[in-house]
Each structure stands twice: as structure tokens, then as C-alpha cells.
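Ticket #4471: structure export looks truncated?
Reporter: QA, pipeline team
Priority: medium

Steps to reproduce: submit the single chain below to the structure queue and open the exported record.
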Amino acid sequence: MKTLWNKEGLFSKKAFGLLGVIGLLGVAACSVNPATGDRQFTALLPADREAAIGAQEHAKVEATFGKFMTGPISDYVSRVGAKVAANTERSDVQYKFFVIDSPIVNAFAVPGGYIYVSRGLLNLANTEAELAGVLAHEVGHITARHAAERDSQGFVVGLGAAIIGAAANAPGVSQAAGLGSELYIKSYSRGQEHESDYLGVRYLARAGYDPMAMADFLRSLDAQTKLDARLAGKKTGEGANYFSTHPVTADRVIQATQKAQQVSVERPIVRRDEFLQQINGLVYGDSADQGFIRGNKFYHTALGFTFTMPQAARMVNSPTAVNTQHPNGTIIVFDMGKDQSNSDPLSYIKNVWLRNKDVANGESITVNGMRGATAAFTGTIQGKAATIRLVAIEWRPGEFFRFQMAIPKNVSSAFMDELKTTTYSFRRLSESEKQSIQPKKIRLVTARSGDSVASLAAQMDVDELKEDQFKVLNGLIGNTQIISGRLYKIISD
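Actual output as written to the record:
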């Protein structure tokens, strides 16, 4: 959870005058791509404008995700990326590489040569060649002009639907069309993914890396996605990750493997130990700036607070809120609200949060020395009657941390006491706690003779599925044996 967030999408539609757009569409709008040899429709984002558009989008990426990571890991990613990018067909692009401080496994590119990888992706990779494969794939999207082609087509679809909606005097039509075009802009087609895989293998080979590394990393991605689904109790495919913006199909790993087998590289570069040393100590999961979960507790050492959720509740941290669901159906959302009038907590609930909704049972409370208030009213959860309990705690004048609880009618009195405990568990962290309570990190261990997956996984500081998480983290497939003297990753303090 961050204090501030940007609600704009990662890729925004460009503002073009309607007459200018119509004029562009009326002239030749195709170009031959130097990497693929194909003719492409890129009318609304010509090559000579890519750098300017990319700079605008780069600023929005930073506003959305926060400051990029700096230091040795950022420099390392840039060096690997530059080595890959030196082997492309487009010398007109200046490639730039950035590391986003996010636990989500993701990578993406915007026009103009801006390429991003997440901290979560670095944690999952196991060799420099795998990192190079990801960067090569994203470079492939740029050299193939997929972002430009995708942006052009998405904008035209949105424009046409908006005109139809205006003519029909039906705002809902344009809104639905706008959603569709935004979703299109944020994802690649199956054909574009395969083409970028092909180009990525080409650039990997030219740079001297093992061309099989791309397929290896895709296997790890697939395994991580399935593991995340198990940990969250969801169906495979739900949730945001690399495959949300890079669609995967059953045959994509196979095709990437086949492409790699067609390329011969003498003494291919892998660099496993070198890569692992680079990520040793890298934060795993949410960082201190985002807040992090430990068991049923949430800590935000950067802002300086903590609270405890009921036992058995599952918390999920996001940039805007901490979302919690209990097996009994209770839903709890924790976030922050602001009020420029600097009202007291009870007035804030009634007049700002609820926008003057009549609440008869609101009351003022004190939570660990902070002014607070709570109110309740009847609502529904999935069509069933529920109690909606709101809690606002004044952090500083005009800023409130909030709990919103949707509680089914049939919960026990003991559970209601747990919810009350959650409210009063919110407190400020001491200075010593801010220093001593830290996010989990990637640590390296050297396997000894007799070590097994079970013995190494036992060192993982995770709550469940230790062996499964260890295997996915280290790219171990099936019954792969542990090799004595080899480095392996674990998650630890």
C-alpha cells in the first residue's frame, strides 16, 4: 500500500485533433519494419515521434510505480540490456533499462526504447542469460514496433466507437469502447508475443547468451503463476503478473525451445552464480515503502504503523489498499482518506466518507492515543444482508487511516471481538521497531553433501508450501536433485 497513487493507466491515449486524425488515416499509413521485414500500420505513432511519446509515457510509469531502483542492481540490468540491444536492427533507438520496485513479476516496454523489469522478476530469474532473455523479448517488442502498432490500432478503435456513441447519443457505448481499447493497449496479441520471442532468441544468440534461457524463464513464470494461484486459493490465471500483459499459450514454451534449438552459439553465456550474487539481499515481496505482511500483521515501517487482522484472514497488499477476506465471508479494506476541512473523525465519516448519509449510531473512540470514530449500518455482501462497519483513525490533521468491514449477519460473537481487536491494534511503530522489523529478502545458501529440496526448503521463512516455493524460486523442475556445492536461493529475514 502506498500513500499516494496515480490512477492513470500505464499507456494513455494520445490527444489528436479529429481533423488531423482523419487526414492521417487518408494517406499511406504503412511502413516496412527492419527487424521483421513486414509492412505495419503505425499511422498514429510514426518512428520519428517514438522518442517523444516514450518520454511522456516514461514519466507516467514513474508516477505510477514510484522512483525506480538505483545502485548496483540497476546498473547490472542496464549492462545486460545494453549488451542485448547492441544486436538489434534499429540503430535509431536509444534503449534505456529501469528496475521497478514491485513484487509483481512483470516486464514491459514503451515506445522510444524504454524497458522495465520488476524486482519480482529479478527474484524469480536464476541466471544472467534468463534476465537477458526477458530484456531481449522486450527489445523485440520495440524493434518489431508492437507498442507503436498496438497504440495506433487501439486509438483508432476507441475513436471510431466514440464517434458512434456520440451519434447514437449513448454515453455508455463510448465508455464501454474506451474500456475495450485500454485493455487492448495493455496487452499483446499471440502473434506479437511469438514474434517477440523469435526476435529475442535472435538477439540472445547474437549477444552470445544461451538461447534456451528464454524458454527456461517462461517455464519458471508458468510455475510461479500456478503456485500464486494455489497460495491465494484462486483459479490459475487470476491476478496480475507478467502473463496479464504478455499472454501465454500452451505451446509458447515449446515454440521458444524449438526456436532456440535452431540457433548455434559456441560456449553460450549463462552466468548463474554471477547473477545470483547480484540479487543476494534483494527484497522479496512488498518493500518497506509499500508496507508488508507478516502472518496476520501488516507493517508499514516507512510511514510507521502496524495493525493485526483476525486469525485465518488472508491479506493482499496493493498500491491503494490492504484487502482482506476471512473464510466466514467477512471482507475488510484498509486504506487512507483525506479531508481538507480538517474535521474530526466522526464528522469525517458522516460528512466526507459517507457524504452526509444518515448514520444514527456513530461514536467517537480513541485508538492508542489517536482520535478515531466508528459507525455501522446495514448493507449486503453478494446479495446477502451484512453489517457495514466503518472506522476512521486520525493519523495527522486532515489524514485518516480507515477500516471498512463488511460482516455477514451470522458471524460469532467471538469473531466480532476479533474485529474490535483489529480496530484497536492500529498503532504507531517505535523508532526501534522501524529499524528492526524489515521485509524478507533473497538469501543464498550453498548446498552441502546430503542436502535435499526438503532440507534447504526448511530454511525458507514462508508460512506454507515451503518445498513448492523453494523449487519454483530456484527453477527446479520435477524431481531435480540438489547439487552439492551449488548456490540456491531461499527467502529469509
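Status: closed, not a bug. The export was complete when the record was re-opened. Leaving a note from the reviewer for reference: The chain has three domains: 18-279, 301-422, 441-492.
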